[in-house]
Specification:
By secondary structure, the chain is an all-alpha fold. The chain folds into 2 domains: about 90-180, Leucine-rich Repeat Variant (Alpha Horseshoe), CATH 1.25.10.10; about 185-370, no CATH class. About 70% of the residues lie in helices and about 0% in strands. It is built from 19 helices and no strands. Helix 6 (about 80-90) packs parallel to helix 8 (about 110-125), helix 8 packs parallel to helix 10 and helix 12 packs across helix 16. The radius of gyration is 26 Å and the shape is globular. The relative contact order is 0.07. It comes from Candidatus Heimdallarchaeum aukensis. This is HEAT repeat domain-containing protein. InterPro entries: ARM-like, ARM-type_fold, PBS_lyase_HEAT. GO terms for molecular function: oxidoreductase activity.
Length: about 375
């Protein structure tokens, strides 16, 4: 097993190749202890190692990397900006979305613009759809237009729409409804006010991690992705208004309806990596369950053949079982045991998933009040 202490020590080596190998190893280990040292590498290392450190940070996926990656999007070196734009596609933070949109519009490099668009698609949030649509209508190089259209396709797919047209229709219908209540210039003002709230994204991450901590208690062994998504939304929504009220008090006024909707979208987007891991676990669990069912059918067939053999030759000694269930328990008891094992398995897997996001709660927010 690789020692994290040894790898961190190698970052101090005078040979840049040794340091680069250490940076690569930290990315492969995905250990949270490597985040702060990698951030230092991005700030202080030679160009090649800075790029390698950016990739390593995206592999680890810790939210502490977002700030330095955003800073890298303003770097003078195109390759650094390109690496940062690619890395930010691994994060669902509203900060990442906002910064990638700025890069898409203002970066002097078409390569960086294209990568920023694709990263927005990778994140999958509906928030940048309108801006992407506006950019798709401008006279951009073909490669950039292709990236923008690809991003819209990815966002549509990630949000369950059959096409970009359906996505656009839904987004515009929502926008029209909002515009009736809040003029566009007011929306911009209210959005900027909310986003300027100190450490908003840290509070959002903490809220998501804390509320989903007990998600294993509501997901059964028969859960599917649609059911899981609804239950996760219900969990996050349960104390949302209390959270929004707390934010409003700190801002000095109650959140507007538009700000509340925007805050909810931020919370839902922030929960995406957790949701994706839960959905993948459910898919894996379903495959395991199907395999167990196939085995049970085969086992039942063997038992039936065995019973037929006994009936045909009742005077002969009973043959040894071809297959034995665990401890020769009865079939209904075996099924009960398997169900309990599966329930424990899914609960354990969910605890492991939530454990990966424990750092979202431990960020120093000493002045936080209880909401």
């Amino acid at each position: 097993m690789v020692s994290i202490k040894k790898v961190l020590k190698q970052l101090e080596d005078s040979d840049p190749i040794v340091r680069r190998d250490a940076i690569l190893t930290l990315g492969e280990l995905k250990d949270e202890k490597g985040v702060d040292p990698l951030i230092k590498c991005v700030q202080q290392e030679i160009k090649e190692n800075r790029i390698t450190a950016i990739v390593a940070l995206s592999d680890i996926g810790d939210h502490r990397a977002i700030e330095i990656l955003i800073y890298c999007l303003m770097d003078d070196d195109e390759e650094i900006r390109l690496a940062a734009a690619r890395a930010l596609g691994r994060f669902t933070s509203p900060q990442a979305i906002t910064t990638l949109l700025v890069s898409l519009k203002k970066d002097p490099s078409v390569r960086v613009k294209s990568r920023a668009a694709l990263s927005l698609g990778s994140i999958g949030s509906e928030l940048p759809v309108e801006e992407l649509l506006k950019e798709s209508k401008l006279e951009h190089p073909t490669t950039l237009l292709y990236s923008i259209n690809s991003a819209l396709t990815m966002i549509a797919k990630k949000n369950g729409y059959s096409s970009v047209d359906e996505l656009v229709q839904k987004i515009r219908a929502k926008k029209a409804e909002v515009d009736e209540k809040t003029p566009e210039h007011k929306q911009i003002q209210e959005k900027e006010e909310l986003e300027s709230f100190p450490r908003l994204y840290d509070y959002i991450r903490k809220y998501v991690a804390r509320e989903l901590e007990g998600v294993q208690t509501v997901l059964s062994i028969n859960s599917d992705e649609k059911t899981a998504s609804k239950k996760i939304a219900d969990i996050l929504a349960e104390k949302f208004w209390k959270f929004a009220e707390w934010i409003g008090k700190r801002m000095g006024h109650k959140l507007t309806e538009y700000q509340s909707d925007l805050l909810w979208q931020m919370i839902w987007d922030t929960s995406r990596p957790i949701r994706n891991e839960i959905y993948q676990m459910i898919r894996d669990h379903r495959s395991e369950l199907e395999e167990l069912n196939r085995f049970q059918k085969w086992l039942n067939k063997i038992e039936e053949q065995k019973e037929e053999e006994i009936v045909k030759d009742i005077e002969r000694s009973r043959p040894k079982p071809i297959i034995q269930t665990s401890n020769n328990v009865k079939k209904d008891e075996a099924e009960t045991i398997r169900a309990a094992d599966l329930a424990r398995s899914i609960s354990s897997n969910l605890e492991e998933i939530m454990g990966k996001y424990s750092s979202w709660k431990t960020r120093e927010l000493k002045d936080e009040e209880d909401y």
